[in-house]
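fold-stage: in
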Amino acid sequence: MKTDSIFYRIFQTLPASFFELINLPATEADVYDFASVELKQTAFRIDGLFLPINNQPQRPIYFVEVQFQKDVDFYARFFSEIFLYLRLYASTQPWQAVVLFAKRSIEPTEIEPYRYLLESPLVTRLYLDEPVDIQASLGLGIIKLVVENEKEVPTLARNLLSQARSDLPDARLQKNLLDLIQTIVSYKLPRLSPQELARMFSISDLRNTRYYQEVRYEEALNYTTRLLERRIGGISQDLQVQINKLSVEDLENLGLALLDFTSAADLVTWLNNQGSSDA
């Protein structure tokens, strides 16, 4: 699973979940922006950075790192990134470092050079496989879904879907979360069939996910391309490029229109007319 990108999406979509994770009020998210930062002229990238909004010097910068694989050099790299950031951006604000380990066993054991930092209030280490009370928090529930046992994933996913529908009045946020939950489920259960996925999600939920839209597009494109080949023979590369840019709805319309085609010229005319109508 691409955990870095998953957690980036979680914190970008539900930034309050980060503050709940470190036992701070969810409302703290209202005064922070979340970003991933690449440090100039280096190979370093900080997974996540919560920066106070509107220049509030009393609030700390939060450096966030997600670690799902054992890496003996992890702390050397992480603290290097932090201090390099502070140097490059001449920051005078307080800071906090938060590390999210998949489990305690992957944390480096050779920590002597960093012991004072790790034992100070500056650093919070969390182990995502250890029990967390998620009953009241949709965000924490989604984080738990990332590390949940495969057998428990369907049940937790269904509960989160139900909670998202009931707790989120914002339709766009609800759609983003449904898509995020579906993405995590697909990573966790890669052998899950479309039928099993449909049983987990309601039909309306599934239609709103990126997964459904991608599958629908691929099916429409493949079906239309096969019909064109049967109807008018081979398609030039230029025409195929134009067809690939069509929306699902346009592909479905083309699938109906091509029943009357007799040559590639008919396809060219249809595509030109489509371009004119979109202009």
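fold-stage: in (second)
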Amino acid sequence: MSKLLKLLALALTVVTIIWLYLTKQSKKKYTNPTYLARLKELVEFLNLIKSLEGYITWVERDKIKLAFANTGNFFNNKNKFYKQEERISEFNNAYENFNQNIKQHNFNYVKAEKEKLKLYFDDIEGKSLDEQQRTALVTDEYSNLIIAGAGSGKTLTILAKVKYLIEKKNVNPDNILLLSFTNKTVEDLNARITALDLGTRAVTFHKLGYNTIKQFEDIAPVTTNENTLNKVITSYLKTDILSDKKALEAYVEYVACYMNIPEENDSYHSLGEKIDTEKGIDFQTLKSKCEPANLAKNLKLDTIQGERVKSIEELIIANFLYVNGIAYEYEKSYPHGTTVYRPDFYLTDYHIYLEHFGVDENNEAKWLSPANAENYV
């Protein structure tokens, strides 16, 4: 019995020693200098995210996350290891879900800002902005891309954005750069900006570049015209494209297959808009432009027209066949049947007729009227 008691006492002593050691080690990890430094950063992060106001851009978001990346790595999956410090669990949750939290923060900000400025947005040049326009205005992202069709209010949205920044965000008008490609749009914007007394001006990209060069150079730059522009393009083609086989192949492929990519039919407001857009496209194929026989006809001003197709899709197909050395005839009569039928392409070396059907993935020809589409399909 005495021996058993001695063994129990020994075991208890060992357990006690181990417990004391582990307790000491546990306390030691909470006094480790690295831990304390990271804990300080952890507290800074938690205080920072609680103090965030306004719209947080993706640049600001990533900058914050990068600044605390080492802290995040240090405490990652260590909730139980540092279980006495409850803030570690809070930090890990906030850091791991930081992107989603910022997204929700921005959503709440946009919603609140639109509600707060409802009456303000109800009267921009006597017009009430729609929800998408209001969202575009208060979304203070690092960069915004607004995609909208003709007549949808893009210019009004830009004007409202300028007005909002100056009047509600206290942005200095001199710090706003408003650019457009065309003089007409610039003139329209400036007239409306003046009417609203916003104190800023719009300029074209060309004018901005001209003024910038003029400001830092002794001699004002000479503006180009069609002749000088043609010389620059011709020189570039000769020195950089025609002398490089790979570049030339890529250029020919681009001209043949990618210069005129057809728009989705849904992007047009009407069939008339689609027709107007395609009026500016040259439907003459590369075969017509490059074959020696056709070149001779053009030089002689022959009245015989070169090969021209009827759609962008047919132009792409014809150029693809030509560039890849596949001989074809355009709209060769189909020799079978009792009616005249001319498929789009006849592959002469393979005796294959190829018909392009202008339908979408739902087998619908939206570029035609409903009645004609039914007959077409």
